[in-house]
Amino acid sequence: MQQPPQAEPVVAVGAVVLDGAGRVLLVRRGRAPGAGRWTLPGGRVEPGETLGEAVVREVREETALATRVVCALGVVQVADEGFSYAIHEHLLAPEEPRATPRAGDDAADVRWASREELAVLGVRPEALGVVDRGVAEARARALVP
Fold it and tell me: Model pTM?
């Protein structure tokens, strides 16, 4: 039986990371909520962390990639499987463009995907909107073609 979401959402972070070809970094969740689902890397903000520190840490833990924050992309509210999150989304750039991501922490798998592949992979509509904002910001800043 599914439980109702908690009253106060957990503060979390999410990342749109793009490679030089404009592909999006995705992780396949290894645990609830959303186990088995492809999504953007991210997770909870730890006590004492800034949002920027948290998103860089989460990407490193889940994908082994070193990144830097480019800009904030807004906050997305997500309630799923009894969990409620206020996800502070960010655009990040890889520190080493040729580095290969590796799944770690609670990520079961990791991959680069084109925008066209996201819906086929089952990426949620909320994440698709964040990806579109991230790609627009990256193009405006000449980070991707």
Answer: 0.91
Span 50-58, mean pLDDT? Answer: 98
pLDDT score, position 1: 44
Q: Which helix (H) or strand (E) holds 74?
A: strand 67-80
DSSP code per residue over 35-72: TT-EE-SEEEPPTT--HHHHHHHHHHHHH---EEEEEE
Query: In the chain, which ranges are continuous DSSP H helix?
Result: 51-63, 115-120, 125-140
Q: How distant, in Å, are the alpha carbons of 22, 48, 66, 132 from that of 128? A: 14, 30, 23, 6
- Band (pLDDT 50/70/90 cuts) for residue 83 is confident
Are the C-beta atoms of 37 and 29 separated by less than 8 Å?
Answer: yes
Coil, strand or helix at 118:
helix
- φ, ψ (nearest 5 deg) of residue 9: -70, 150
